[in-house]
Amino acid sequence: MFSLPFTLSILFLSELASAAETFHIPLQRRAQQTHDLDYYSAAADNLRAKYNIGSAAGASTGRRRAAVENIPVINQGTTIQYGSGAVAGSINRDVVTMSNFTIQNQVFLGVDRLQSGLLDGQTSGILGLAFQTIASTGGVPFWQNLLNDDQLESPEFSFWLARSDSRGDDSAPGGVFTLGGTNSSLYSGEIEFLDMPGSRPSYWLLPLQSVTVQGERVSIATGNSALSAIDTGTTLIGGPSDDVASIWAQVPGATQAANQQGFWTFPCSTEVNVTMSFGGRSWAISSEDMNLGPVTTSGRTCAGAIFDLNMGSNIPAGSGPSWVVGATFLKNVYSVYRANPPSIGFAELSTAAGGTGTAPGSRSTAGAGSILPKAGLASALSFISIWTLL
Ligand SMILES: *[C@@H]1O[C@H](CO)[C@@H](O)[C@H](O)[C@H]1NC(C)=O
Ligand SMILES: *[C@@H]1O[C@H](CO)[C@@H](O)[C@H](O)[C@H]1NC(C)=O
Ligand SMILES: *[C@@H]1O[C@H](CO)[C@@H](O)[C@H](O)[C@H]1NC(C)=O
Question: Is the CB of 267 under 6 A from ligand 3?
């Protein structure tokens, strides 16, 4: 284990960054930890809260519930809900520097209270990568400030999220985050950019247009119900109840997990092949990413990586994304987040980056992964690995 903490360096610097840079940051997974099922139930609830989806209170009926206590805010401050919990603190402004990039007057939350388990001693900060419209602090996010200040070579950032290898080797590369461009050694062919809907970017959003399971097209809701947040900070894929049920209905032997509402299980011997399209080409999710590992002592029943995000409650139309598409999908593509025009691009992974989503090695022991900005732990049922910045 050689994980180093990602540190949001807050330095008092007098020199300004030189203009128009691209910065490639190797990512490293956090050490793997085992967690019980209640832990993941709680994490799923946190993700629902983060996206204001459904009723997390209603979600607690019918299963054992882990402690998801809210942090009492003693001092006047902001609480921010992440997939893995909540933090609170006061809003500050200071000089923030990352590599050659510097923002003189960056708004950020100085966290003085956090839900237990949110950070693990290896992480000292979380850096938001969505748009100002949804920033809890109200401030312009660091990346957007860099963009406005013309410090980025291209108005975009990109991710390769590596699958953990069969040995769960924490020192293996966890991926690469590139700020201000792409890293052409990590993808092959063209990057297919899809315009984001709406005129005021908030989350990184695309409409989910088609899903296949075991080669068969599954009928899914359209319009606002198909709006999907493409979220590098979330581990799994969450979607509306009916659509998620339709997906698992295509998998022989799949049933709803008895004690883990919102999750589905299936015979471990079954390969679950899912593809997703957001309006352009269809991208295959490796069956190893769909399988979170055994959830029974016999080892014959495994949990699936697509879960019911709203657990039967109705998501009010227009209230935000209905799907949250995390690393389960994103490990299978090279993804590019372009601010201008607001669009998201996907490309095939290069061989160097693990090929086409059928990387060798056993089923992922982790399932998992999240990066910046939010440690999305709504996650793998037996292990979790989180990417953090070196
Ligand atoms: C692109 O990613 C590769 C693989 O991680 C890395 O070795 C290389 O340094 C990166 N490119 C740049 C310009 O940093
Ligand atoms: C930082 O800027 C210097 C000078 O322009 C340049 O040589 C160096 O490559 C830059 N570093 C990164 C990580 O972009
Ligand atoms: C899943 O996809 C793999 C690779 O394409 C294929 O070999 C396998 O037969 C598929 N399984 C099912 C159940 O569709």
Answer: no
Which residues form the pocket of ligand 2, taking CB atoms under 6 Å from any ligand atom? 18, 21, 23, 99-100
Question: If you measure from the C-alpha of residue 95 to the centroid of ligand 3, how many angstroms do you get, rounded to a whole number?
Answer: 51
Ligand at shortest distance from the CA of 290: 3
Strands 334-339 and 237-239, bridge-based pairing: unpaired
Annotate 371-386 with b (16+ C-beta within 10 A) or e (fewer). bbbbbbbbbbbbbbbb
d(Cα 364, Cα 379) in Å, to the nearest integer? 13
The ligand 1 site (C-beta within 6 Å) comprises 24, 176, 183, 185-186
Report pLDDT for 18.
Answer: 44
Q: Quote the tokens at residue 204.
A: 């990184």
Contact (CB, 8 A) for 29 and 61: no
Query: Where do the domains of the chain lie?
Result: 3-387
CA of 273 to the centre of ligand 3 (A): 6
Say if ligand 3 is within 6 A of residue 314 CB. Answer: no
The CATH homologous superfamily of the domain defined by 3-387? Acid Proteases (2.40.70.10)
Q: Which ligand is nearest to the CA of 287?
A: 3
Report whether pLDDT(96) > 60.
yes
Which pTM value belongs to this model?
A: 0.79
For strand 237-239 and strand 306-308, is the pairing parallel, antiparallel, or unpaired?
parallel
Q: Is the pLDDT of residue 226 over 70?
A: yes
